[in-house]
Amino acid sequence: MSIVIRDVREHELDSVLALNNNAGLAILPLDAARVHHFYEHAEYFRVAERDGNLSGFLVGFGSGSGHDSSNFAWFAERNPSFFYIDRIVVASRRRGGGVGRAFYADVQSYAELRFPQLACEVFLDHGADPALLFHGSFGFKEVGQHVMPDVHVRASMLMKELCSYPWVRDTYGGVLPDLPWTRERKAASLHSERPTGT
């Protein structure tokens, strides 16, 4: 069966919370209020659906969002414009089946229209080799390490240049055509005031 990547729906937030909190030590736990905050404010909040079931989710924020993560702040101190993947979770029964790759293809196609770089982190304290290999295969490179002060977790900070961004910026000047695949989430567009292009 094919993998469908689409915007999350509000009635799915409990399922998203369960996926997150069953993901193991590589993902920080969430509560219902935090998931709802993501729903209200995240620029990118999409789920994967396979065989009619949720198989995972990805949450991301643009650099102008004022996101309150310490890892986001680490990137913001060093880079003026980037898109940050806050978390990606794939259900354990779906790992290795292409869901993560489908998410990264989708989030990159979203980000490269708007930002010159894609940023994320991998926690290093709990068997990071598969995650580092996965990200390396997508062209991410470590640009530093950061210890998250609130949870004392060490993270490898990864970035990837988005080579299509300069062409999109120069061609469209920060005003993308109004097409279904170029539109931002409605909830996020009400809360963010990201400057166009750099």
UniProtKB/TrEMBL annotation:
Coiled coil: none
InterPro entries, sorted: Acyl_CoA_acyltransferase, GNAT_dom, UCP028520
Keyword Transferase tagged: yes
Keyword Nucleotide-binding assigned: no
Keyword line: Transferase
GO molecular function annotations of the record: acyltransferase activity, transferring groups other than amino-acyl groups
Domain N-acetyltransferase intervals: 3-164
Pfam families named in the record: Acetyltransf_1
PROSITE patterns: GNAT
Protein name as annotated: GNAT family N-acetyltransferase
Species this protein is from: Pseudoxanthomonas composti
Species lineage: Bacteria, Pseudomonadati, Pseudomonadota, Gammaproteobacteria, Lysobacterales
